[in-house]
Amino acid sequence: MNAPIFIADQGELAGLVHTLGTCDAIAVDTESNSLHAWRERVCLIQFSTPTADYLVDAIAIADLSSLASIFANPHQQKIFHAAEYDVTCLGRDYGFSFANLFDTMSAARTLGWPQVGLAAILETRFGVTLNKAHQKADWARRPLTPEQIDYARHDTHHLVALRDLQIDALKAAGCWEEAQEDFARLARLPAGAPAGVPDPVAFWRVKGAYDLTPPQAAILQAVHAFRESEAARQDRPPFKVMDEATLLALALHAPASLDDLRRLARMPPPQIQRYGRGLLQVIAGARTAAPVRPPVTEREPDEVRDRYDRLRLWRKKRAQARGVESDVILPKTTIRDLSRRPPTTVEDLAQIADFGPWRRATYGAEILALLAADAATPA
């Protein structure tokens, strides 16, 4: 195996884009720094062809826009493993759009393989053992170590061969068109939300938030905002500043002094020393602020919820009979859309989200019959 080719400036990137443009298929992966920074970003983009591996330094190269033509080219296949994260991150950071994807994890799930992680697949199918020790590394730090470089290149090096194996298996199993529909769905995924942009209602996602009284929720909102500002100032992930269980404990107990903070089992002395006075200040302000109530969400009508439950049960039985996960049969977006806009004709099915021709031909009649029986059942 030859050493990977490191791409660290615009001239080298231009040469790579030309080289990749001559290939019918390329393997792609990314490495980000989500565990080490407040604003997550793509730090490294790996490409492999049948003859070489390339590592693009997304920290060193300011303008990666020339890669857009590669990702959007409908005549060239981009092979990912677990494409969803990479697609949303690349869309978020660079505005890339995608066409003609192949996802080796999606293919494995469609085939009903018992293990779908890349390391397990490569060991089982190719006898290759991956070292995952650098999975949580800080990929923004430079220089990359030789071990990181070796780790990164192996995430794409075998994907072209794996794709070839899976194409044969999908066609033999009669699942090729089904898999292609899921690849197309992945290519349509929207870009991720800009990293680090504050979400004013994010505190409601803290486990236990909806059990708080409105005055307690006001404190949770305040300490959550405090944590975010500290994370931004230090450029650290928020969970490394303070975990969510601590935020909830602060909201529940509303400490008014450093002694009160010390009585909270969640807060070790160094954390109190670093953040204690700031927390006490925002908690005091929250006590006099307006109470905070949960956002009002419109409840789905009973008939929509009933259809959703019936469709999920149908999907589960179909999946069990075939030996795959339920969302291989139909993605959640499709089940949700079917329950909200129940089709009555074959033509209606074509308007349902992520319900491609193969799935319509395979499951359409069953679904129309199920929904028709549901509509005929007296309330």
Q: What is the N-to-C succession of helices and strands?
A: EHEEEHEHEHHHHHHHHHHHHHHH
CATH class identity of the largest domain: Alpha Beta
CATH homologous superfamily heading of the largest domain: Ribonuclease H-like superfamily/Ribonuclease H
What's the overall geometry?
flat
- Tally of discrete structural domains: 3
The tally of helices reads 18
Key words describing this protein structure:
379 residues; alpha/beta; Nucleotidyltransferase, domain 5; DNA polymerase, domain 1; 3 domains; six-stranded mixed beta sheet; 18 helices; HRDC_dom_sf; hydrolase; ribonuclease D activity; 3'-5' exonuclease activity
Question: Can you lay out the helices and strands and say which pair or pack?
Answer:
Elements lengths: L4 E3 L2 H12 L3 E8 L9 E7 L4 E5 L10 H5 L4 E4 L2 H12 L6 E3 H7 L7 H9 L19 H12 L1 H14 L3 H12 L26 H21 L3 H4 L2 H10 L4 H5 L6 H19 L14 H21 L3 H4 L2 H9 L5 H4 L7 H20 L3
Parallel strand pairs: 1-4, 2-5, 5-6
Antiparallel strand pairs: 2-3, 3-4
